[in-house]
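B., you asked whether I could sanity-check this one before it goes into the benchmark set. Here's the sequence:
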Amino acid sequence: MIINIKFVHLLKLIYKFIIMKKLLLPLICLLVSTLTISSCSKDDDVKNSSTIIGTWELVEIEGETTATQTATFNDDSTFTLLVSIVVNEETPDNELVTGTYETLNDLVILTKGIGEDQEIWSYKFLIDDNELSLTSILDASDTSVFTKKD
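And here's what the prediction gave me:
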């Protein structure tokens, strides 16, 4: 009789194991697939205008031009760019540029003026923490790096 009780107990354990295995395996698969899907991210995150909105100050500029620049991108898709160029430590030559902008993936397109006076500048942009890099589409060596002011 003792053997029969142990055998019955063993059968119950085997039955529970089979039931648990049937339930556990799908649960494990579901958990693994959920973690896999939720941990995926796009390598090319789409940039939108809200990431570039704010005031940015020039940190460094590549190329031969030395200037102080402050760029402000507003949430209404307008921008202002204050450029101050100092030559031989004389009084700075200031220029204020205004216009509109739009972003598309990693591009920002700046439009200044209307009609024949219209100028369009296109830059690849990258935002890393509080740093904005703008690289000219026409000249990859023309890169300006700004830090967020506000």
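One thing to flag: Residues 42-49 have pLDDT under 50 and may be disordered. Otherwise nothing jumped out at me.
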